[in-house]
Amino acid sequence: MTTTVEPASESAADRARWLAVTSLAAGTFILVTSEMLPVGLLTSIGSSLGVSDGTAGLMMTAPGLVAAVAAPVLAITTRRLDRRVTLLGLMALLGVANLAGALAQDYPFMLAARVLTGVSIGGFWAFAAALGPRLVPDRFVGRATSIILAGVSVASVLGVPAAAFLSSFADWRAAFAALGVAALALVALLAATLPPLPGEPPTKPGPSGPAAGGPGKLSRPLKVVLVLTVLIVSGHFAAYTYVRPFLEQVAGAGPAFVGAALLLYGAAGVAGNFAAGARAAGRPRAVLVTLAALMAVATAALPLIDLPLAALVVWGVGYGGVGVTLQLWIMRSGGGELGTALFVCAFNVSIALGAFAGGRVADGVSVAAVMWLGAALAAVSVAVAGIGGRSRRSGS
C-alpha cells in the first residue's frame, strides 16, 4: 500500500530548515547593524553624552575587542548547552544592550551597554555561522552558510543607513530602541524556527582539539585559515576605514558621490557573498585566491586610475565573498564551532588592527598610501592561500 505522506513531510521539513536558516540571517543582520550603529550617529551621541568624537569612537572599539574574547570563551564554556537555547539567550542580551544604550544618560553607562553588545556579537556570530551543516543537507551547506552570513553584508548596505535615517527624524536614541525591540522580537522568531541543537557530548578518548589538532593545539589547516583572516581583514580595514577621506581628498568626490559609491560597494559585496558561497563549498582555497586577487587589484588601482566606482565594485565583490569562503574552509577542514569561534576572534582583532595601522599610514604618509597597504596585504594573502593551503590536509 502506498502513501503520499512522506513527500509532504519532506517538503514541510525542507521549509522548516530554510526558515531556520533565514531567521539566523536576520540575527546576523541585527547583530552587525547593532555593532556598526555608532558609525552614523557618532557626533550626535558624543554631543548628547558630553564626550569628544574620539572618545565616542570607543563605542566601536569596545564591542569588537569584547567579541574577540567572547567568541572562543563562550564556545568552550557553553559547548554542552543546546545551541538553540544559547542563541536565544545571546539575542535577548543584544536586545537588552540596545535598549540600555537608548536609555543611557552618561558615557560610562553607554560603554557598559556596548560591552554587552560585544558579548552577544562574539557568541551569536560564532555559533550561527557554523550551523549550516546541522540545518540542511550537505549539498546545500554552501548556500545556507551564504544566507546566514549575508546578514553581515546586508547590514552594511541597509542596516546602518536605515538607522541613521531613522535618527534624522527622531534622535539617536530611537535607532538604539528600534534595534533593541527588533532583537527581542527575533528571539520569538528564533524560538519558533530553530530545532533543538544539542551541544557537544563529553569528550571521547582519541585526538581532540580544533580540527583534530590535538589537545591545546591548532591543526595546520586551521592555522592557515586564521593567518589568512588576519592578513585579508587587516588589509581590508586598513584601507576601507579611510575610503571616505580618500574619495574626498584624492578623487575629489562630493558627499552625494561618496554616498552612492559606498552603496554600490555594499551591493557588490552582497553579490560577492552569494557568488562565493555557491563555489567555495567545494574549492575554498581557489575561491579565496581569486577574491584576494580582486581586492589587491582594486585597492592598487584606486590611486592610479580615475575610475573609483569600477574599482569599488571589484573591491566589494572580492571582500564580500571573504567571510563565507573562510567559514566554509573551516567547515571543510573540520574546525567545528571552536574553529569558527577562533575565526570570529581573529576577524574582530583584525578589524581593530587594520584600522589602527591604516590610521598610522594615513597620518604618517598619506591617505592614498593606505590603499597601497591594503593592496600589499591582499597580495600576500594570495601567496599564503596559494602555497600554505595547497596541502590535501588543508581541506581546500
TrEMBL record:
The keyword GTP-binding does not apply. Signal peptide: none annotated. It is found in: Cell membrane. Keywords: Cell membrane, Membrane, Transmembrane, Transmembrane helix. Pfam families: MFS_1. Gene3D superfamilies: MFS general substrate transporter like domains. It is a multi-pass membrane protein. Its main location: membrane. The chain crosses the membrane at residues 18-37, 57-78, 85-105, 111-132, 144-166, 172-194, 224-243, 255-274, 286-305, 311-331, 338-359, 365-387. PANTHER family: CHLORAMPHENICOL EFFLUX PUMP RV0191, PURINE EFFLUX PUMP PBUE. This is MFS transporter.
